[in-house]
From TrEMBL:
Subcellular location: Membrane
PANTHER family: CYTOCHROME P450 26 (PTHR24286), CYTOCHROME P450 87A3-LIKE (PTHR24286:SF185)
Source organism per UniProt: Ziziphus jujuba (Chinese jujube)
UniProt entry keywords in alphabetical sequence: Heme, Iron, Membrane, Metal-binding, Monooxygenase, Oxidoreductase, Signal, Transmembrane, Transmembrane helix
Annotated Pfam families: p450
Protein name: Cytochrome P450 87A3-like
Keyword Signal: yes
InterPro entries according to UniProt: Cyt_P450 (IPR001128), Cyt_P450_CS (IPR017972), Cyt_P450_E_grp-IV (IPR002403), Cyt_P450_sf (IPR036396)
Topology of the protein relative to the lipid bilayer: Single-pass membrane protein
Organism superkingdom: Eukaryota
Entry keyword annotation includes Chloroplast: no
SUPFAM superfamilies reported for this sequence: Cytochrome P450
Major location (coarse): membrane
Family of the protein in this entry: Belongs to the cytochrome P450 family.
Lineage of producing organism: Eukaryota, Viridiplantae, Streptophyta, Embryophyta, Tracheophyta
Amino acid sequence: WKNPHCHGKLPPGSMGFPLIGETVQFFTPNHSLYDIPPFIRSRMVRYGSLFRTSLVGRKVVVSVDPEINHQIFQQEGKSFLICYTESFSEIIGRKSLLVYHEMAHKYLKNLILHLVGPANLKAKLIHEMDESTRTRLHSWASHGNIVDIKEATSNMVFEYFAKKLISYDECKTSKKLKDNYNAFISGLISFPINIPGTAYHACLEGRKNALKVIKDTMEGRKNCNINHGDFLDYLVEEVRKEDTILSEEIAVNMIFLLLFAAYETTSTAITLAIKFISDHPQVLIQLTREHEGILKSRENKNSEITWQEYKSMTFTHMVINETLRLANIVPGIFRKAVKDVEMNGFTIPAGWLVMVVPAITHLDPDKYDDPLSFNPWRWEGKELHAGSKTFMAFGGGVRLCVGADFAKLKMAIFLHYLVLNYRWTVTKGGDTIRMPGVIFPNGLHIKISEKQNG
Ligand code: HEM
């Protein structure tokens, strides 16, 4: 156990206890949002930028070297694959986008871009997001004024996106899709022990129930000629074509994956942006100035945000990038080595997992001056719209997040109306725990009211 078989030289490190490995240490909650997880930091100091460990029953090499991370992303489909473990395939689905590579992956990703790519964002979603964001903010400010923004934004993104995907309306059904997703997410990184009572079992049950809702909706659509205008309609049409690899099963799994990938990430990002802005009044002043400037240039003050206006929100984009840099919402990006791979004089054996840790790069003082401070101005004049060796919030290479533009547009629209029309103060919560994903144990409660002359 301690010295696993390898044809070359394994990276240094400890495999921990048999089976359990170092899982307990890895999941030990960390109360500092900003710092590098102690599990990683202590091993970096001891072993260097590439070390071995064992997590949830899997042999893992952790990489905290930006050059190696870049190579790992670039070798997707050649030396490394995103589909990493049997239990993960079971969780995420054997027909998920994540298990497809090369041409099939490209084709499926293009289908998703039909919904969340720049063309549809510009033509359609920007208008819908504008309206739904205004309505939400207005209702929060008029219903007793105190809102747990983590829960509220989570519901906001979930409900909006579930509607876009399958015209699902949580209020009109007893199926409780969101509860099933929450169970699914909670057990996503857990020991693969499938017996009632375990997080893994709850995760699989959540997935099964959520898939059933999506499948039933698809069944109902197949013989129906009504146009719902959602993504499912588009996929049903695509499945009917003769020259497609898209089956009903792949389509159902795609919808399942999209909702999962979109709502916790985006709502956590919005919540953290509000937390950071609340803690940094100078940022709020400059943000407000930017959005007041946009409003001043509008002929009709009540008209919605245009694509040009969105593109002109430079400081807002800086705030978004800075939030995502510090938030490290996806704490680890996993790949599986499909063959023995040589890296920095070490061998990563075939079958092992590699974990890329974006936080190391995002909090590296050589890459970001005074890295633990929230400073949107550091992005001045820098590239704001792509993944790079030093900015991996949305991953990198061919697996770069397909929803990045959607998430950023949603955040920008939200910040626009929030700073222009509302005042808020944090009344409770805001503390965070990394498990290693970010959790708000007490939410983030704000007292929100409409500006009098807003
Ligand atoms: C702030 C919000 C978000 C963050 C931080 C985020 C982060 C990421 C990261 C780091 C990856 C790469 C994972 C890997 O390489 O293993 C990824 C992939 C992905 N994301 Fe996002 N994401 C966000 C929002 C969204 C949204 C809104 C959607 C859907 C509309 C989405 C859909 C996806 C999908 C489908 C993939 C897999 C892409 C592929 O395999 O080619 N994400 N995301």
